[in-house]
Specification:
Helices cover 39% and strands 6% of the residues. The protein is built from eight helices and two strands; from the N terminus they run H-E-H-H-H-H-E-H-H-H.
Length: 159
């Protein structure tokens, strides 16, 4: 669960995104991109949106980098995709004919790509990424850390 809280710029971010999306061509250089552009989460931008400015609770959610600057809002794009997307809204970018992404490829439903539905987008994608992570990584419920009595690799020193 905590892996999904990794922020943009952390060293583990790129590795986790590659683990979650292994279909990315390994010979290509990918940029880490905010699906909903990071400048859309500035106070100045948010205060222009009535549905957020009039709700302190929503404003707090949208401004919080723990939501917009973490794995659920990040994706790997190749250089040309990243340049073409820039600060374009997710909905507008996905509707461009030159774009080969769909909401389902990003693990979200069509109705949750609107910026006004960012909380739903975040929760839906986070849950989908969590399931994908669990299915791709072998996790044990308990790791036995007690030393084995049959361990012959250790030297026993006697006086």
């Amino acid at each position: 669960e905590s892996l999904l809280n990794i922020r943009y710029g952390e060293g583990r971010c790129r590795a986790l995104l590659h683990l979650l999306f292994p279909e990315m061509n390994p010979t290509e250089v990918f940029h880490i991109d905010h699906l909903h552009p990071r400048n859309h989460f500035s106070k100045k931008y948010l205060e222009k949106l009535d549905y957020i400015a009039n709700s302190p609770e929503k404003l707090s959610f949208y401004e919080n980098p723990e939501y917009w600057d973490t794995i659920p809002n990040l994706h790997l794009l190749n250089h040309s995709q990243n340049i073409s997307k820039q600060d374009t809204s997710l909905k507008q970018w996905l509707s461009q004919p030159s774009n080969n992404y769909s909401p389902s490829m990003l693990l979200v439903s069509d109705e949750n790509i609107e910026f006004s539905r960012f909380p739903e987008f975040y929760n839906e994608r986070r849950n989908a990424l969590k399931q994908r992570l669990l299915s791709r990584v072998f996790l044990t419920t308990k790791i036995d850390s007690s030393p084995s009595t049959m361990d012959t690799d250790e030297e026993i020193l006697t006086d």
